[in-house]
Amino acid sequence: MRIIKSYLIIGFLVLVTSTYAQKVYTESDIHIIPKPSQTLIKTGVFEFTKDTKFVVNGDFQKDAANVLASKFEVAAGWKPEVTTKAPASNYVLLKTDANLKNEAYVLDVNPTHIVISAKGNNGFLYALESIRQLLPEAIESKYAITSAKWQIPSLTINDEPRFKWRGLMLDLSRHFFDKNYILATIDRLAMHKMNVLHLHLVDDQGWRIEIKKYPKLTEVGAWRVDQENTSWNARLTTNPDEKGTYGGFFTQDELREIVKYASTKGIEIIPEIEMPAHVSSAIAAYPELACFNQRIGVPSGGVWPLTDIYCAGKESTFEFLQNVIDEVITIFPSKYIHIGGDEATKTNWAKCPNCQKRIKDEHLKSVDELQSYFVKRMEKYINSKGKRVIGWDEILEGGLAPDATVMSWRGMKGGIEAADQGHDVIMTPETPCYFNFYQGPQNEEPLAFDAYNPLSEVYKFDPVVSTMTPQEAAHVLGGQANLWAEHIAGPKDSEYMIFPRLAALSETLWSPKEKRNWNDFTSRLFSMFKRYDYQGLNYAKSAYLVTASSTADLGNKQIKVELKNEFPNPDIRYVLGDKNIDHHAVKYVAPIEIKETTILKASLFQDDKPVGKTYTDTIVFHKGFAKKVKYLTPFNQSYKGDANTMVNAIRGSKNFHDGQWQAWLVNDMELVIDLEKVESIEQVSVGALESQGAGVNFPIQVKVLISTDGIKYTQVGKITRPYAANPVPELKDFKINFQKQNARFVKVIGGNLKKSPKGESSWLFVDEILVN
Hints:
Strand order of the largest sheet: 8-9-14-15-16-17-18-21
Radius of gyration: 31 Å
Largest sheet: 8 strands, parallel, barrel
Shape: globular
Structural class: alpha/beta
C-alpha cells in the first residue's frame, strides 16, 4: 500500500512539473513590440539551457547570436555556445532564405529547436530581438536570476516592416551627448526594430563634427559661453571675444566607431550638416562665411530670427561647404546626407551685394529662389559623390532640387506636396513626432518645449495620409521622431523624453496598420516597462499620470473635477482630504463635486495597487470666490481666461495656454474684487507664473489696498522683489498678510517687469487672487 501511495505521489509530482513546463500560451502572452505581422501559436515550449547552441554561418550571424547568448551569460549564469555545426536538438539555427524581403524574417519555434530564416542581416537581428521579447523580462537583468524558466512558446512568426525608414533624430548641438550615450541609443533602437539614427551635428549653438581642413569649427564653434543657469530663450547674446567653455565634439575616429557599431545593429547613421541657416557656430569660427563678415559669438541659447546665415553670393561659401562634405562622406557610408535647409531668414541676402549679383547672374526672381539655387547646387555636388540629399520641408520653397528627399516637419503638407511632385518623403510632423514636447501634465513633468505629444497621440501617427494616391503613398519612405535638445541637458533627460514614446512609434512604423490597436499595445507595454526597469532606463511614466479637468459651477458655489488617464478603461481611484491613496480609495466613475476647501488625491490602480505618481490638488474656496472683478487695466486678449478666472478657485498650470490665465504685456495688473458685503480679511494671495523662456516673469511688486466704500482705499501690504534668472517654469503664490480688517473692496496691483534683461517685452500672468 505504501508503494502504491509513493507511485501516486511521484506521478502527481511529474504531472505538476510537466504541466508547469508545458504552459499553454495564448496570444495575450505574446508581448512583442512592435507587433509582428503574423503570429501562429503552436503546442509546447522551447527551453533554453546551458546546452543550447546557436548555429550560424558567417561573422555577422555569429556576432548577432552572441549578443543574445551574452544576455543568458549574465541573467542565467551560463552562455549558450555559438557554433557552425547543428546538434540533433536544442539549437537555434540561423538560415539564409533569398526569397524573403531584405528586413523580413520567419521565426519557427518548436519544442526541440528554433529556425530563423532571413534574407539579410537585419532580418536575423530582428528575429533575435523577437526571441528576446518572448523570453521572461528577467533576460534583461544585470545579475543572475536562478529561479527563472528560460522558456518561449512554440510558434511561427512571419514578420516584416511596413516602412523602410524607421528613425530617431538626436540633436547634439543644443546639448552635447558623448559617444557612450550614442552607442547605448543604438542598442535601444535595435531592440525596437528601428533602423535609422539621424545625428543633428550642426546648429547655431554648437558644431559637433571634426573637420580637419577647418579646425576653428571645433576650436571655436564647438564651445559656447556657459549660461546653463538661465532659461534657454532668455539667454543673453554672446560676446565674440568671450571664450566658450560649454560644449564638445566628436573626432572623426569616434564617429567612424559609432558608424561601425551601428552597422552591426542594422542601423544607418544619417549625418546632418545644416545650411544655409542654423550655422551661427560656423560663422563664429569663420566670419567670412556670412554676407557681411560679421563677428558673432556662438549663441548660448535661443536665436530668432536666424539672420546670421551663409552668404549665397560668395563662391568661397560653396568651396567651404564642398570641402566639409568631402570629409563627411569619408566618415559616413550612408546613402543620404541631410543638409537641413530650414528656417532661413533671408534679410541679409536681400541687402548683400554678392547675393543680389548672384540673383541677377542666375536669373532668379527672389531670395526664395536663391535658397533653391543654394540647395540645388549643393545637391548636385553631393550627388556627384554618390550620395542623395535630404532636407527639411523648407527646401520646397523656390523649387525643389531634382533628386532631393523631403523630411516633412511642419505638419504633413510639405510631405504631401513633395510626394505629389514625385519625390521621396519622410514624415516627421511636430505633432506627434517631436519628442521634445511634453508627454504629460506640465506641472508633473521636467522642462520641455511648450506643446503636448502624449504616448497615445504618438501611437495614432501614420506616415501615409488618407488623401494620398497609391503613387504618392509609394514615395513615403516612413517616419521619424525628433528630439531637439534645448531643454535636454543629459543622457537621463534624453532617455526620459524618448521612452516609451519610441515603443509606440516603432509599432506605427513596423506593424501592419490593421494589426495596430491601442488597447492591445498598452497591455503589452507593461512587459516593456519591466525590461526598461531591468536595464536601468530612465523612461517616462507619464502615461500612468491621472489628469484633472475642472469647471466652476458658480451658481451652485461648487467645482466639478473630471479625472482621466491615457490608458483605456483606466481604474482611477481617489480620496478627499489628507488621506492616503490605498485600498480604501473610491473608484472614479463620474465628475467629483467639491463645495468646500479640500485636498483631492487620485491615482491609477493596477492589481488593486496605485501605480505611478499620485495626483494631488488643493481646491481652495475663499472669500473672493465667484465675486465680481473690475479690471482697471485691461488684460491682453490673447490670454483672457473667462469672466471669473481670477476668482473661480481653479488654478492654472505651467501650461499657460490652459485657459486659466489672464495676462498683461508690459502693463501692470490693476483690478478690484467686490466681496459684495463687508468681510473681515487678513490675507490676499496672488497666483503667478514664471516662464522666462517664453518672456513670462513674476511680478516685481504686489500691492494690496482695501476699502469699505470703493472710493477711499488704504494700503495694507506690499511685496517688492528684484528680477532673478530662473531656468525653469515655476508657479508661485505671492501672499500678503496683515492684521484683520474689514473690507468690501480689495484692490490688487501687480508690477510688470516691463523689459527682460534681453530687452524683450515682459508678460505678467495671474491665475487666481485668493482673499481670506
